[in-house]
Amino acid sequence: MKDTGHSAADRRGQIGRKVRDLAAILPLLGVVFFASPLISAITGGDEGELPNAVFYIFVVWAVLIALAFILSRLLRSDAGPE
Amino acid sequence: MTLSFNLLVSICLAYVAALFLIAWAAERRASRGRLGILRSPVVYTLSISVYCTAWTYYGAVGSAARSGLEFVTIYLGPTMVFVSWWWFLRKLVRVGRAQRVTSIADLISSRFGKSATLAVIVTLLAVAGTTPYIALQLQSLTLSFSVFAADGAADPGITALWVAIGLALFTIIFGTRNIDANERHHGVVTAIAVEAIVKLVALIAVGIFVVWGVASGPGDIAARIDPELLHGQDVFSGRWVTLIFLSAAAVICLPRMFQVIVVENSDERHLATASWAFPLYLFLMSLFVLPIAIIGLSELPAGSNPDLFVLTIPLARNQETLATLAFLGGFSAATSMVIVASLALATMVSNHIVMPVWLRMSKDQTPASDDVKTLLIRSRRISIVGVLSLGYLYYQVTGGTGALASIGLIAFLGVAQVLPALLGGLFWRGATRRGALAGLSIGFALWLYTSFLPSFEGGFLLTASVLENGLFGVEALRPRALFGLTIEDPLVHSLVWSLGANALVFVIISLASFPRPIERLQAMQFIDRSASGGARMGGISRVTTSEELLVLAQRVLGRDQGIRVFNEIAAEQGRSSGLPEPTDSFIEKLEREFAGSVGAATAHAMMNQIASGAAISVQDLIAVADETAQIMEYSARLESQSKELAETAAELRAANQKLTELSDQKDAFLSQVSHELRTPMTSIRSFAEILRDSEKVETAQRARFLSIIHDESQRLTRLLDDILDLSFLENGQIMLNLEEVRLAHVIDRALAATETLQTESNVTVIRDREVELIPVETDFDRLTQVFINLISNAIRHGCGEGGEIVIQTTQAGDAVHVDVSDRGPGVPADKIDLIFEKFARLSAKATAGSAGLGLPISRQIMLNLGGALDYLQRPAGSTFRVTTPVSRADTAVQSAA
Amino acid sequence: MKSVLLIEDEPNIIEAIRFILEQDGWTVDTHSDGADAVERAAAVGPDVIILDLMLPNKSGFDILRDLRTLPAFVDLPILMLTAKGQAKDRETAEAHGVTKFMTKPFANQDLLAAVRALGD
């Protein structure tokens, strides 16, 4: 199999692995954007105004949910019987 | 406030009645197997929203009014947990389902070798963390009632009591119908899902009303932000991260969350939906929190309780319908939390405290399984009432003080103590029971000391002076600045101490101790589960061969039992021979058989072990089985097992005794055989030597001696034949030539064979040959042998010269009785038992030429022929009765006639 | 002429032993029931008794024990002959005071030698 390394099954496997990696990274994104000094840096911390912080948090949150939605679609087929 | 208190109560009751109806309908559907929507990912996701309690429903707005964005942390933590479902929640759910855990206490205990102590500690922790939380819900409810009933129509204490009673009733009815962890509470879960919708709709409705009804859109809201809220709040501090972390921990560790996420999960794929849908739910729940808080602060009079803005804003605008909806939302949030929490707690308390105590107390009795089931249900019901009573009591003692407000986060921190053991248990093979015990105990103690007890502000156990100056006045022991660590925020302080020490001690002790075999096995079950992918979830892979399973089955169940089970299953599969196919149902059945021997968890572990390739040795499995036996000491199963063991031991003793007796009998038999053989041999040898050594033997004498030798040789041969015959007969190894013969012919032959004897003794035989023409199903030669024996016995022992022998035949149903009687002395009553014994000879006269095997052989022949040979006690003479079955064809003719 | 009392129930064995001993010049009395064997012995007053073990109605051991309680038979030579040749039978016989113990079948010469030795 080493000369035909790009068979369809192999490719699907690789994509599956990438999706799973992303699934592992997603919570890390959450931590970086919600629970790190980054949040103060972007919203201005003490100096920033509340609406900016609210906007920031809800947008990041929404993106996170959207990513989770896409991931769950991709992973659901993966989670079925292998 | 025109809405009357009574009307509100009626609405509540109607709402509760509707919930009852929904739960009842769901149970009905489930019991008919029409699970459909009940098992949909939507219902699952909605049931998880039991996370949002009245504390978050009302309190989020309050918190937003006081500290701005901080409230959002309570939602961000769970969001992060759910987006990490693929590598964390999935594994948790998978392990929980595979191990059939009933609660988080069960999970921790199961992972660390079914440790009862761990289960008790986690249960206590859960009770300590949840009771105030339940009290909080009761307080929210009464508070929201009081908003409507400003005229003081009801005493809040009474309201809380009725609410508690109603909730207990609901939980008991729908939560304790069945006791198996695998049976899910469809009624409860469906009702919770409906309540989830109600609280979301209510909050969004209030939010829309506030943004577009009260204010004129988002821009207006932004403009109305209180200057204090707008600036200068360092929310993104250590507390921010702490709260996110705590809420993330709580969403897994809270007993009620574990209940809905893990125990009530019916399909792990539902997690995929929940991974985005539950964060979305939280997102929507928090979307309007800040606007409501901002408008509340700007619209309502100063000093209004921000915790009740959700209710008071619509009321202030005379939007009674909306206010009622908002009230129902809060009511839903509170009731769903209390129901699930008390259900989860009751399961723990009942399984890990009540049952072990009861079993220990009734150790001497062996409870029937029905008793245990009834007891289990009863103890759960009592536990539910107990948990709710505790919550109510807590509310009564602390209600109205400020103590309750902060209890939500304190409870989070309390249950978060389970986190190190949980994470370690799921991901770290080296985690040990000792480590988990030590970590949990220290964390629990430190949490109590630095967080829980101080929350009473000196009102309970720890006095105000202790809080101020430390225990015994030692400054280093100040609960809020332990060992001089001064962190301004008491929650962060407590978290650093309790959870830090907990995790540290857990890791250190785990490294320093060695897991027992069962821990190692459980660790493999917990840790390797997701690594091998989803393929094995449904059961055991088909790669498992029946041979492997048979080997294991014989080890666990014993050789014969193992083979018996396999044969049964093979027969069920319609195979006449060979091993059964390793189908799922077969494996399930086998596992159930195992569970009866070694307990469910171990049985399951063993079966999975076989499937995943033997990474663990058989010795380990045996060690596990041994330890499982110890662990099950208090379980009803062991009680009955030890009884079985005692029975087995008794059976063994009996069998041993029987063997000893048989061995004695065999010795006696051999000794007798030896004696019987030596007697003729003595004569033979002696006369042979005489003939060899003595010249002075006369011719006549010589002839006589030779004939003695000849006779004795024949006697010897006959004896050997008899012994062999008897031994074959006794073992049933005799070949019978069954045919239909006339009884008369048999007796004819027997009389002919004994004719010489008859003539010598001048004996007359009296018989009725007509009656004897009955056809019998028998072996002609063998039956003849019996009659020859009886007749010659009668001639030898029963008749003097010129005696009579009477042969009398009667038919009795399917059998024929032939009585052979003589007029002799008969058998003395005390010797009757002896005559059928081998080598039994009653008199010196009888011994001549016979070894005493005739009657035993005859009896054995009759038994082999399906009949019997008995001695009948008659006033005079002896009578032997031969019973033999009549020919079947003959019976058929008779019954037809 | 010395006399032997043979207590034995097998007619052929009786005949053999009688022939062997009478050829050697012994007077042979026989008795074949266990029940009254002791009385018979007292009546005959033999120089040697040959006693079978398996007798109808009363075992050789019991006869031996009863004989040894009588003054006349305390020291009388008693030869026990038995087809049950087990060690424990020999021990029982010795415990009951047997003079000599032999198993069946026997060599005629051995039996004769034993009776001669006991008779002297």
Helices, strands, pairings?
The complex is a heterotrimer of chains A (82), B (897) and C (120).
Chain A (H helix, E strand, L loop, with lengths): L7 H27 L2 H7 L6 H30 L3
Helix pairs in contact in A: 1-3
Chain B lengths: L4 H27 L9 H8 L5 H14 L5 H11 L1 H14 L5 H8 L4 H33 L7 H20 L10 H29 L3 H6 L3 H4 L7 H16 L1 H9 L6 H18 L1 H11 L9 H8 L3 H42 L7 H30 L8 H10 L2 H9 L5 H20 L11 H6 L20 H23 L4 H11 L18 H12 L1 H14 L11 H15 L1 H12 L6 H14 L4 H58 L5 H32 L7 E5 H11 L1 H7 L2 E4 L7 E5 H19 L5 E9 L2 E8 L21 H4 L6 H11 L3 E5 L6 E7 L2 H9 L1
Parallel strand pairs in B: 2-4
Antiparallel strand pairs in B: 1-3, 4-5, 5-7, 6-7
Chain C lengths: L2 E5 L3 H13 L3 E5 L5 H8 L3 E5 L7 H10 L8 E5 L4 H9 L4 E4 L4 H12 L1
Parallel strand pairs in C: 1-2, 1-3, 3-4, 4-5
Features:
A: 82 residues, mainly alpha, 3 helices, B: 897 residues, 4 domains, 5-stranded mixed beta sheet, two-stranded antiparallel sheet
Structure explained in plain terms:
The complex is a heterotrimer of chains A (82), B (897) and C (120). Chain A is an all-alpha fold. Chain A has one domain (10-76). In chain A, 78% of the residues lie in helices and 0% in strands. Chain A contains three helices and no strands. The longest helix of chain A is centred in the C-terminal third of the chain and has 30 residues, at 50-79. The two termini of chain A are 21 Å apart. Mean pLDDT of chain A is 72; it is low at 1-5. With 897 residues, chain B is mainly α. In chain B, 67% of the residues lie in helices and 5% in strands. Chain C is of the alpha/beta class and 120 residues long. Chain C has one domain: Response regulator (Rossmann fold, 3-Layer(aba) Sandwich), CATH 3.40.50. Chain C has five helices and five strands, in the order E-H-E-H-E-H-E-H-E-H. In chain C, strands 2-1-3-4-5 form a five-stranded parallel sheet, sandwiched between helices. Chain C starts with a strand and ends with a helix. Chain A binds chain B through residues 20, 23-24, 26-27, 30-31, 34-35, 37, 39-40, 43, 45-47, 49-51, 53-54, 57-58, 61-62, 64-69, 71-72, 75-76, 79-82, and chain B through 68-69, 72, 76, 79-88, 90, 222, 225, 229-236, 240-241, 244-245, 268-269, 272-273, 275-276, 279-280, 283, 287, 290, 533-535, 538.
